[in-house]
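RECORD TYPE: inverse folding
INPUT: structure tokens
STRUCTURE:
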């Protein structure tokens, strides 16, 4: 089933993503093109404490709306996923996880991007310091677990990494 790359052309190189178009040949010797967005990936943390889940509300420009998410952020080049998770959780929430464990690896949209998200779980923290990026504006709050499940059922939570992490948690605590 593997496809072979015949050639690759970089179309765009930005700060966060790059775009290339690859000419490929399939197993059946059919030629085609694949448009690929490359991204360093990121990490997300499902933080749980006393029956509550930590959610963030942040405006996401591509969707033109504020969405609910678990704390997450971009991976620096060559940074380990666990380091990204620790850094982003502290920067966005002021929490330092004491028991961070990876629960899954997520391919958010495998049809056009090579992005990988490492998803982690923590339920024990110490206080650190907030440090938002210059263009980052978000709020975080602890939300009762049952309310979070209702937010999923009503469609209020739409973010894929958040849905997967919370539903993993729900299944693992049955």
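DESIGNED SEQUENCE:
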């Amino acid at each position: 089933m593997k496809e072979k790359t015949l050639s690759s052309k970089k179309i765009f190189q930005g700060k966060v993503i790059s775009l290339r178009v690859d000419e490929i040949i399939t197993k059946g010797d059919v030629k085609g093109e694949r448009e690929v967005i490359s991204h360093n990936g990121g990490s997300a943390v499902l933080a749980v404490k006393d029956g509550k889940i930590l959610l963030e509300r942040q405006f996401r420009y591509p969707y033109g709306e504020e969405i609910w998410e678990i704390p997450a952020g971009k991976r620096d080049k060559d940074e380990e996923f666990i380091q990204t998770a620790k850094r982003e959780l502290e920067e966005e929430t002021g929490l330092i996880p004491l028991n961070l464990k990876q629960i899954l690896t997520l391919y958010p949209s495998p049809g056009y991007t090579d992005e990988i998200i490492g998803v982690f779980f923590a339920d024990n923290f110490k206080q650190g310091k907030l440090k938002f990026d210059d263009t980052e504006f978000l709020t975080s709050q602890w939300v009762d677990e049952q309310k979070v499940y209702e937010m999923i059922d009503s469609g209020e939570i739409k973010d894929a990494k958040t849905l997967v992490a919370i539903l993993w948690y729900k299944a693992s605590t049955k």
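NOTES: The radius of gyration is 18 Å.
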